[in-house]
Amino acid sequence: MRVAGAAKLVVAVAVFLLTFYVISQVFEIKMDASLGNLFARSALDSTARSTKPPRYKCGISKACPEKHFAFKMASGAANVVGPKICLEDNVLMSGVKNNVGRGINVALVNGKTGEVLDTKYFDMWGGDVAPFIEFLKTIQDGTVVLMATYDDGATKLNDEARRLIAELGSTSITTLGFRDNWVFCGGKGIKTKSPFEQHIKNNKDTNKYEGWPEVVEMEGCIPQKQD
After folding, report:
1. pTM value?
2. What gap in Å lies between CA 89 and CA 161, rounded to an integer?
3. How many CA atoms lie within 13 A of 198 on its CB side?
4. Nearest-angstrom CA–CA distance, 68 and 218
5. How far apart are CA 112 and CA 141, in angstroms?
């Protein structure tokens, strides 16, 4: 009887040890698999982060060099969505900021520091061109001037207003017409014509909207004024 009892004990211990061994092996395999999955996910996350395209100021397509201001702007869309002007990741004018309106929208910026000096819009359909002319005459040398049309920016423009804008570096201002879309970046005291200008004519055969051309957009890097 004692021998039989001892044999049963030995068998029970052996079964227990075998069971423990099997469980430990299965657990170890699962742990290895879990750790493997964890490292794989970490590697994938790291790869995704490294391949994510960088974001540049104002959402422009490439970084600006040193001593340049990044800008991006868009004209209005018909008479529904207002224009938008962004400089150095700072939205200067937009419908969201509620500081845009029908006509020509203007932002003035210090050419050395990038500081916003003023933002205004002038109604060139139902307004008077005289306040716009006086405003243009007060712009100081070294000021960066950004302009964008909304709805109609040309009906009330006269030769004097066009001349003053041309002196800021604009080429298209002489032909800007009723409901044309136009964006421009120039400066007071500029010696050449600005490379930053886009203009789409109002043409019933090519207009994207009924009575208005498509939105015109522009981005670039403005050289910082040096002493």
Report:
1. 0.77
2. 30
3. 17
4. 16
5. 11
> Tokens for 77?
């869309």
Residue where the block lists tokens 């019933």? 204
pLDDT, tens digit, 9 for 90 and up, residues 114-144: 999 999 999 999 999 999 999 999 999 999 9
Are the C-beta atoms of residues 78 and 153 closer than 8 Å to each other? no
**73 contacts 183 by C-beta, under 8 angstroms:** yes
How far is it, in rounded angstroms, from Cα 40 to Cα 35? 8
172-222 pLDDT per residue, tens: 999 999 999 999 999 999 989 999 999 999 998 999 888 899 999 999 999
Name residue 148's amino acid: A
Under 8 Å between Cβ of 149 and 103 = yes
For residue 78, what are the contacts with CB-CB under 8 A and spacing of at least 6?
151, 209, 210, 211, 212
Residue whose token pair is 């590697």: 43
What is the layout of strands, in order, in the sheet containing 181-187?
116-122, 103-110, 143-150, 181-187, 196-200
Half-sphere exposure of 227 (CA within 13 A, CB side): 1
Give me the phi and psi of 21, to 5 degrees please: -65, -45
Instruction: Dump pLDDT digits (tens) for 59-108.
Output: 999 999 999 999 999 999 988 999 999 999 999 999 999 999 999 999 99
